[in-house]
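G., the chain you wanted modeled:
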Amino acid sequence: MSEHKSWSSEWYQDIFREASNIAMSHALTALSNMIGEIEMEPPTVEVLPRAKFLAMIASRGIRDSFVVMFDITEGLSGLTILQFPKKSVRALVSLLLGMDPEDEGMDEMGRSAIMEIGNILISVYTDILAQLIGEPVSLSPPKPVESLYDAEMELARPDLRDVTEVLAFKTRFYQANTDVESFFYLVPTKDAFDKLVSRLEAQIESIGTKGDIPGSEGAEAGMNTDPEENGSGEG
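Predicted structure as tokens:
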């Protein structure tokens, strides 16, 4: 059995960081058509030990935030989790529905609106994963996370029981005085993790002479989130 690969090299993280930047530029083009012109900060990528990952989800709140899970069903294997902290949930509800962000609780309409935003972010991240591994990547329907126990139970599955590293993507976008943070966690099985690293190694070799990452064409255009300048408004 081959030795499990490590993410100690900043090189791999740089590839993912750039891929995340490309992905979000396209996502924000779509989001701008829903809520107007948006600005974004470059996404950050962090490799977390399993325990720190769980602590991070808990520290950002679960019951009073928005957290959903998706199984990876094609291309890779494992789990993805999308989280909007409480402050960001209120900001999104205000932007999308015109409600007071100080209102307590979130009704079904609010959850549906936030899930629509979540679907855009999730689809873009799966698209970039597909580009990196050169295969389609598909996810299951979303599963709500009501408590830390729900996440811990998923990680106790036989295929995830031995997972030691989780990739965490943090994205911040804002409009006027309202800012939103979202967190996307990729929890790959060990086989999927190694497959991903191997494909990234191949990408590094292939881009060595090109100076660019596959899928980056048009990335700068995607960073322009003004619907008027983007014309058709298709994300």
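The first helix runs from residue 10 to 35.

Shout if anything looks off.
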